[in-house]
Amino acid sequence: MKLLLLSDKESSYLWDFYQPGRLSEYGLMLSCGDLNSNYLSFLVTMGRAPLLYVHGNHDKGYASRPPEGCDCIEDRLVTVRGLRILGLGGSPLYSGGPHQYTEQQMARRIRRLWFQLRRAGGVDIVLTHAPAQGYGDGEDYAHRGFAALLPLLDRYRPRYLIHGHVHMNYGAQMERIHQRGETTIINAYERYVLDIPEDKP
To answer: CATH assignment of 2-195?
Structure first.
């Protein structure tokens, strides 16, 4: 199954210059935040595949006008098409805006999910906005990663952590993919296609 990963920048290929059929190959779409609500509504309408999302630190407009037809999975573990997906949006606290968390707050959010994780028998994909500390995060204060995500990865060993927040054009040496143990960490900036064999989620 092909997954369309999205974050931070609307793709003109999929929106402004969209052509029928461009979304037909995807079985699932995942948004890591900071995207126009109308953009996500457009994609789920044209693609006809489920679209799950978490909040970015600039998604304050979602409160009054959430993406139509999409499912917010903040602080939830859901199973979609055989994949157990956990949502933990938001960025580290840097300006006091919405969807910003201290390390302690993020660690508390993760602890509250233990029953869902236990009941599901683990997790396949962790969907975040900010990256894990040391794995694709930025050097500036606003784009640092969460250290609280590292114990989650080490204990439950999800196959993927998918994030946004750090734009690929921030530096010429930016790498999209990192590895920590058994977990592949992917920066979903703008769009990225992930192909997962359906018999091995």
So the answer is: 3.60.21.10
